[in-house]
């Protein structure tokens, strides 16, 4: 068939002036000759469909049979072709009887009008289809047999479909096979060729590199507000009104949650998942196609066959399933050839959950060879993705080139790594440090590591503590230690060359990030103990303590950080009291069991009862707010206890008091309000009386001790200790009195006074707000409450806008 005929059909049937690429043209030309089987391996969006649709149109009186994996995909193709007035039909379980009869009648006629017949591979196995196919072959009415998404034929493929394997049985003389895929690596290609019995094959393959797509990976746990971050990213990607994007989520719940967040942040988003009714799904997809919604938050059920040119971003909210799926899903971006972005917001919790399930699948598949291979492949491919996100030290596009057996592309600046290696390495390092901080050691995660995800699970953490002296826990210890070391080795390797890293180095490096006390002396104090193990035990303790507190405490005064502080104290107690690993472990295990028992008995665990929460350090803004919140919670408790009933006037009076008075005053006013004290004066004189009484008591005490000393001729050590204690208490009380307010109280007060201005956006940035609060607090260290208030009010009056340059 000559070129001009082909070009004319391109224009008349498909309305295109030219081919999308030379490869597309070459593939079409080759297929039109009907001399060879053809395998087209081209990236998503490169126009593979035209490679068989155009030759099909050019075969009058014959029909091209197309095997395609999904009804939705088939529907899209048929709609598209019918819109071009090309007769395409499908035969499936949903085809009505009359349509089916009409279609079969056409196909059995001498000159069928149906140019393309779309079938799922499952349908191909039915008797109806077989007899129809035999009839078509017999009368030489089949132009081509096309296998779309041919990677489904391979167990190595991410979408293996057993029915695809049977398609090779349809081979008949003189009927060329055309296989198309976007995601065939070397192994998959081999499988396609053997399973479909492709012979005398012509291969049309382009590089998988899509230079218009920019890839990057971010870690959710390093982002302060991940949804706001996502929103900003989306807004940055959408320039034109037709622009849109996809956020792929792992679960239906996630699609709903992300949609909700994005909508509340002002974007037009819709959730799409298989749990929706068909009509809802269709409506959702159509809205997105039309451009009525900018973002579709979908599970991976969305997208096969989705052909929208103006997708400007594809986000994976969590880790994609495997490199091939990632390539295909992210490849839905930038099909118009213009720049688009593909981003993973990685979340280790998510990837652990997936690994858990994949390991579980593998465990279940142990007897069935085919299932086992599939499960092994799935696990191996997923681990590649985890590695890609957590430790990538290479170009992001290399993931794909490796997968497709190609040399790495010249990316230059089409991914975060090639654009700024140092920044990516730093981010990865920070991610790992954070994970060490929160106890997740190890990179090569195994199934048992996820037990903590499921609160012990069937096997899980219960074993971890129940059999402390058993080999199981010992093995885990060793494993944790090895993994921790591996991690550090890797971190060192990222910086310079790999080197031997001792446990001491590990501790030194991570001491400042750990929560436990005296981290740097871990291994020297308790033989065999590692920092990572202590952190793990601590996390477990926090978990059970928190559970105990939330279930058993009547009033929830402590927040999670308080509970963690309490656990840190308890762990430190155990750490200081033991010198070897077995003893340390047994003590921790005993405590954890005791906490659990308390929870079962509905009793708050003793360490929590006696725990006095420390005021949060006000080094960070979060700490400051925590303090305020805690005070408010405690305040609320006082109010609720005292107030059986409040009149509106009383409420108003309390509110006024809150507005006009500081914290110390406020408590007294509340007490007045509820009748504990008759008035300020009474309170004052009561306070004075108390002070007098206290002075008298101390004096008598001193006197008694002095007499005793005289009698015994010297001070006992207990007396000395007591004296010291009394002195230290007195001196700290005096200090507090002298400073009037404690440092934390000053910090709280300053933040409280500055907050309205922050809400009004008078501060240049959050950082400016923090540094201003810090600087003012430092400057006013010896001032009392009213002086502080006066200063801050004056400062705000003088400065409408506060920048880093604003002088105090
Ligand atoms: N010659 C051409 N000129 C202009 N546009 C074309 C041409 N051929 C195909 N296209 C368009 O390119 C887009 C992608 O085509 P197509 O859906 O066939 O890609 P694909 O390679 O099959 O992708 P996927 O693997 O995701 O299914 C479609 O919008 C199609 O109409």
UniProtKB/TrEMBL annotation:
The keyword Transmembrane does not apply. It comes from the Eukaryota. Residues 673-719 are annotated as: Disordered. SUPFAM superfamilies: P-loop containing nucleoside triphosphate hydrolases. The keyword Protein biosynthesis does not apply. One of its GO terms (cellular component) is nucleus. Residues 694-711 have a biased composition (Basic residues). One of its GO terms (biological process) is DNA replication. Its EC number is 5.6.2.4. It catalyses: Couples ATP hydrolysis with the unwinding of duplex DNA by translocating in the 3'-5' direction; ATP + H2O = ADP + phosphate + H(+). Keywords: ATP-binding, DNA-binding, Helicase, Hydrolase, Isomerase, Metal-binding, Nucleotide-binding, Nucleus. One of its GO terms (molecular function) is metal ion binding. Residues 229-379 form the Helicase C-terminal domain. Residues 681-693 have a biased composition (Basic and acidic residues). Residues 29-202 form the Helicase ATP-binding domain. InterPro entries: DEAD/DEAH_box_helicase_dom, DNA/RNA_helicase_DEAH_CS, DNA_helicase_ATP-dep_RecQ, Helicase_ATP-bd, Helicase_C-like, P-loop_NTPase, RecQ_Zn-bd, SRI. SMART domains: DEXDc, HELICc. It is found in: Nucleus. Belongs to the helicase family. RecQ subfamily. This is ATP-dependent DNA helicase. It comes from Tribolium castaneum.
């Amino acid at each position: 068939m000559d070129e001009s005929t082909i070009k004319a059909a391109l224009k008349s049937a498909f309305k295109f002036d030219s081919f999308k690429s030379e490869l597309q043209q070459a593939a079409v030309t080759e297929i039109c000759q009907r001399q060879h089987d053809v395998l087209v391996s081209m990236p998503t969006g490169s126009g593979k469909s035209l490679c068989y649709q155009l030759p099909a149109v050019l075969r009058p009186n014959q029909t091209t049979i197309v095997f395609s994996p999904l009804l939705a995909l088939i529907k899209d193709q048929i709609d598209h072709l019918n819109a071009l007035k090309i007769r395409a039909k499908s035969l499936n379980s949903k085809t009505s009887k009359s349509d089916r009869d009409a279609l079969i009648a056409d196909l059995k006629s001498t000159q069928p009008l149906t140019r393309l017949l779309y079938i799922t591979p499952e349908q191909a196995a039915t008797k109806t289809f077989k007899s129809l196919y035999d009839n078509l072959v017999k009368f030489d009415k089949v132009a081509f047999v096309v296998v779309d998404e041919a990677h489904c034929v391979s167990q190595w493929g991410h979408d293996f479909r057993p029915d695809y394997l049977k398609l090779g049985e349809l081979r008949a003389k003189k009927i060329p096979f055309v296989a198309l895929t976007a995601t065939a690596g070397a192994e998959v290609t081999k499988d396609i060729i053997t399973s479909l019995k492709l012979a005398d094959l012509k291969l049309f393959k382009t590089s998988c590199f899509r230079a218009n797509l920019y890839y990057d990976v971010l870690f959710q746990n390093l982002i302060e507000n991940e949804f706001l971050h996502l929103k900003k990213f989306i807004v940055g990607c959408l320039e034109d009104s037709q622009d849109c994007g996809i956020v792929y989520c792992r679960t239906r719940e996630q699609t709903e949650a992300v949609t909700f967040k994005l909508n509340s942040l002002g974007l037009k988003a819709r959730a799409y998942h298989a749990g929706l009714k068909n009509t809802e799904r269709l409506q959702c997809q159509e809205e997105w196609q039309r451009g009525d919604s900018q973002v579709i938050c979908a599970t991976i059920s969305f997208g096969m066959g989705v052909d929208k040119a103006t997708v400007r971003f594809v986000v994976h909210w969590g880790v994609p399933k495997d490199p091939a799926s990632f390539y295909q899903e992210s490849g839905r971006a930038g099909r118009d050839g213009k720049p688009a972005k593909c981003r993973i917001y990685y979340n280790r919790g998510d990837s652990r959950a997936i690994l858990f399930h994949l390991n579980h699948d593998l465990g279940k598949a142990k007897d069935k060879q085919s299932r086992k291979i599939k499960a092994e492949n799935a696990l191996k491919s997923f681990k590649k993705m985890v590695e890609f996100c957590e430790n990538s030290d290479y170009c992001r596009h290399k993931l794909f080139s490796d997968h497709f057996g190609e040399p790495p592309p010249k990316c230059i600046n089409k991914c975060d790594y090639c654009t700024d290696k140092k920044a990516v390495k730093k981010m990865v390092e920070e991610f790992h440090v954070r994970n060490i901080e929160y106890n997740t050691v190890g990179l090569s995660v195994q199934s048992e590591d996820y037990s903590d995800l499921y609160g012990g699970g069937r096997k899980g953490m219960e074993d971890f503590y129940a059999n402390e002296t058993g080999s199981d826990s010992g093995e885990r210890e060793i494993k944790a230690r090895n993994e921790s070391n591996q991690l550090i080795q890797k971190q060192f390797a990222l910086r310079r060359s790999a080197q031997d890293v001792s446990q001491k180095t590990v501790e030194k490096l991570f001491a400042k990030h750990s929560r436990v006390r005296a981290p740097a002396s871990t291994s020297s104090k308790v033989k065999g103990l590692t920092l990572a193990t202590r952190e793990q035990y601590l996390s477990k303790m926090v978990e059970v303590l928190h559970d105990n507190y939330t279930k058993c405490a009547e009033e929830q005064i402590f927040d999670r950080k308080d509970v963690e502080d309490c656990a840190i104290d308890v762990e430190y107690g155990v750490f200081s009291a033991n010198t070897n690993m077995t003893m340390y472990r047994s003590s921790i295990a005993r405590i954890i069991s005791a906490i659990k028992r308390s929870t079962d008995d509905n009793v708050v665990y003793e360490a929590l009862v006696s725990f006095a929460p420390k005021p949060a350090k006000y080094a960070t803004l979060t700490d400051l707010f925590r303090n305020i919140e805690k005070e408010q919670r405690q305040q609320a408790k006082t109010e609720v206890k005292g107030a059986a009933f409040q009149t509106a006037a009383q409420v108003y009076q309390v509110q006024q008091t809150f507005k006009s008075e500081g914290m110390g005053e406020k408590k007294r006013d509340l007490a007045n309000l509820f009748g504990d004290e008759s008035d300020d004066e009474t309170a004052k004189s009561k306070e004075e009386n108390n002070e007098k009484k206290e002075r008298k008591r101390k004096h008598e005490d001193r006197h008694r001790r002095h007499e005793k000393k005289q009698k015994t001729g010297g001070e006992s050590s207990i007396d000395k200790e007591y004296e010291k204690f009394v002195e230290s208490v007195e001196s700290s009380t005096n200090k507090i009195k002298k400073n009037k307010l404690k440092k934390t109280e000053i910090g709280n007060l300053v933040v409280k006074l500055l907050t309205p201005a922050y809400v009004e956006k008078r501060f240049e940035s959050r950082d400016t707000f923090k540094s201003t609060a810090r600087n003012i607090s430092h400057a006013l260290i010896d001032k009392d409450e009213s002086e502080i208030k006066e200063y801050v009010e004056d400062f705000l009056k003088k400065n409408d806008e506060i920048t880093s340059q604003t002088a105090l």
